[in-house]
Structures are given as structure tokens and as C-alpha cells.
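Renewal narrative, Specific Aim 1. Our central claim is that a sequence can be written position by position from structural information alone. The example that follows is taken directly from our test logs and has not been curated for this report. It begins with the C-alpha cells describing the chain, in the order in which they were read.
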């Protein structure tokens, strides 16, 4: 194990950042808790330069102190190496005000060199180094202080192998001539993380929302946007306020008065929890009443319906094409094409707009699989 140091004050953090900015690459990981809050609660940041490992205690410092670490994250001359970094990106930006750039995600790199999709850190370390890492602290409470010796060792191990993983995966990517593919996906990953989703767009993620008409969608959009704001203001998980299923039921069944709640209780699938009615019933009714009466022009368009059953054969043959191409490339199929993109492609054809979804219409995927999929769908679709 490399040298391990604890950073718990602004002066030490500033000195560490100055040192790390002189490195070509830095391994980073975070430990956080997100069980009963809307925002993740950062408990620890681990960093390694390959020779030394540091544990940064954000609980011992304020936001202004942590912004010093953001200077490192924003330094584009230093490559940040992380594993399965999506959640780390969110918590780091929240704590420091910066997203790390550029990034090398070892999980994504492993998928590009044929080691499997969503390979865990312990499994990847074992595969590439032969080292077997313990998992006994995976459910630790990282908000408690002081950290135990076992927690410190576990946290350090999460970053001290990243330099080796980066070197070996980079070599394999270069040998397979996939560095450019990988670079494209890393850029997209960071760009996506930088986009702040509008509160008014959350309704599109609610299961079954495609079943609602435009007026009902206007109500659902307003309800979901209110819940987003409420969740942030109170730092509570969405479902602790009102669940997606409850929002859907309220929008679908036009709850405009207190007596309307009883219409839902006969069907448990549509039942609203008593606590929700007690705490938020009046506000929810107010939102429904306001937005149900708005002009049609202000209502959102209907959401795309699922692909019709008669297109099931095309979906199946598209999946087979993806599987075959992925096998030829020794890539995980999920890295090549997501199911949602296949559905979008087939749906576009069904709706008379034969075109590739954005992720398949640009970059390396267009030439590798996108154009062939489009031609396949057009050929098969003409036979229906």
C-alpha cells in the first residue's frame, strides 16, 4: 500500500492541489451517502498520484476551502482517472463547483477493450493486476468521525490502483485503435453531466406518461416541476415527498377537490398515501386546477408511444445485428447501442421519419453500426 495522508484543513489541501497540478494524471474517488436526502452528502475524497494517496475530509472544511480542490478538477492539463464516475461527477461538482476535465473512466475503458460492460472496480483490479481487494467496508457510514483504520485502508485502495489500470487500459485501447472512440464517449459523458436538467422536463421520465393526453401532461409537468423544487428546498428524496406513481395518478384522474381523493382509494395501484394528502393535498389540488385550465397551445406535445407490436420482429432483428457486430468487435453490445436508441430508431420509421437517433447519427457509432441499422430498418419496415 502506498503512503497514506489525511487532509483536513485548507492549508494542507492547498499544498496538495499545488502538488497534484504538476502531475500528468491523478486517480480520484469519492465516498458519499444518499439514503434520505435529495443531494448526495460527500463524506470523503480519495486521490492518488500513483506514489502517494491522500484522504480529503470535506466535513472538516467549508465550501470555500473545497473550491481549492475544484481548481485541480478544472485543470485540463491533469487527467482525472476514475472508475464508474457518473455519481462522482455529481458529488464533486456539488462540493467544489467544478466538474473534472478531462476524465478517464476505467470502467468505460474496460468495456471498450472487451472486458465486459459495467465491470466493478474490484473485478477490474483483479483482472489486470491480480490483486484481490476486500469489500468489507462497502456499506460503511462515511459521515461518521473519526474514520476507522479499516475505512481508511478501504478508501485508499479505491484509488491507489487507478494509475496502473489507466496505463494498462490505455495500452490496450491504443493497440485496438479505439482511443478516439473512447475519447468521444468521455467528452459526451462530461458534456452530459454539465447539462442541468430543467425542472419542467422531469415529467418525461415518469413511467406511463405517454398514456396521458396533452392537458394531463400539462398537469403532470407542473406537478413534477413543483416536486423538483420542493425536493431541493427541503433536501429530501423525490419519493419522500410524492412518488412518480402518485403524480401520475393525480394527473390522470384530475384531482381538483378533497373529495376526489376517495376516487383513487378503490384501486391500490392508484392509491395516494395518507401522508401525501395530509402534507401536500391542498397544494397538489391547486396545481391541478391551475394547469388543467390553461390553453391548449401551452400544453406539451404527447410523448412517444411504445413501438407497436407488429414492429417486434424488426426490433428483434436489430438486436441480432447489434449482437453480431459487437461480437465481431469484441465489444459489449450495450457499449455499441442502447436499447432506448434501438426503440427510437424503429419508432422513427414507424412514424414516417426514418432517421438515426443522435447517439447513432454522429461519432464513431454512425460508421460502425448506425448506417447499417438504418438501412436494415428501412428494408424490413418496407415489408410490413
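The sequence written for that structure reads:
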Amino acid at each position: 500500500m502506498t503512503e497514506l495522508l489525511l487532509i483536513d484543513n485548507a492549508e494542507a489541501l492547498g499544498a496538495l492541489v499545488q502538488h497534484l497540478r504538476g502531475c500528468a494524471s491523478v486517480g480520484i474517488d469519492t465516498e458519499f451517502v444518499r439514503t434520505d436526502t435529495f443531494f448526495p452528502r460527500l463524506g470523503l475524497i480519495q486521490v492518488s498520484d500513483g506514489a502517494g494517496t491522500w484522504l480529503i475530509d470535506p466535513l472538516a472544511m467549508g465550501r470555500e476551502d473545497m473550491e481549492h480542490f475544484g481548481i485541480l478538477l478544472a485543470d485540463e492539463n491533469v487527467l482525472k482517472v476514475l472508475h464508474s464516475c457518473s455519481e462522482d461527477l455529481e458529488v464533486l461538482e456539488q462540493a467544489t463547483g467544478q466538474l473534472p476535465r478531462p476524465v478517464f473512466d476505467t470502467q468505460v475503458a474496460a468495456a471498450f477493450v472487451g472486458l465486459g460492460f459495467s465491470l466493478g472496480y474490484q473485478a477490474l483490479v483483479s483482472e489486470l493486476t491480480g490483486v484481490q481487494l476486500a469489500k468489507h467496508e462497502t456499506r460503511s457510514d462515511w459521515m461518521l468521525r473519526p474514520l476507522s483504520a479499516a475505512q481508511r485502508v478501504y478508501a485508499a485502495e479505491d484509488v491507489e490502483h487507478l494509475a496502473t489500470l489507466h496505463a494498462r487500459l490505455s495500452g490496450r485501447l491504443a493497440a485496438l485503435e479505439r482511443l478516439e472512440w473512447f475519447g468521444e464517449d468521455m467528452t459526451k459523458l462530461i458534456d452530459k453531466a454539465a447539462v442541468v436538467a430543467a425542472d419542467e422536463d422531469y415529467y418525461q421520465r415518469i413511467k406511463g406518461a405517454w398514456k396521458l393526453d396533452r392537458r394531463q401532461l400539462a398537469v403532470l409537468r407542473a406537478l413534477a416541476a413543483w416536486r423538483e423544487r420542493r425536493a431541493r428546498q427541503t433536501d429530501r428524496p423525490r419519493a419522500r415527498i410524492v412518488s412518480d406513481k402518485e403524480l401520475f395518478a393525480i394527473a390522470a384522474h384530475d384531482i381538483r377537490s378533497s373529495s376526489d381523493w376517495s376516487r383513487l382509494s378503490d384501486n391500490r395501484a392508484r392509491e395516494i398515501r395518507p401522508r401525501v394528502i395530509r402534507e401536500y393535498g391542498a397544494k397538489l389540488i391547486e396545481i391541478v386546477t391551475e394547469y388543467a385550465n390553461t390553453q391548449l397551445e401551452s400544453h406539451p406535445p404527447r410523448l412517444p408511444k411504445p413501438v407497436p407490436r407488429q414492429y417486434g420482429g424488426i426490433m428483434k432483428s436489430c438486436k441480432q445485428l447489434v449482437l453480431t457486430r459487437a461480437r465481431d468487435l469484441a465489444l459489449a453490445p450495450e457499449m455499441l447501442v442502447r436499447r432506448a436508441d434501438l426503440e427510437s430508431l424503429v419508432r422513427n420509421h414507424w412514424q414516417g421519419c426514418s432517421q438515426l437517433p443522435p447517439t447513432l447519427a454522429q461519432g464513431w457509432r454512425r460508421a460502425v453500426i448506425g448506417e447499417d441499422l438504418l438501412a436494415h430498418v428501412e428494408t424490413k419496415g418496407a415489408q410490413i
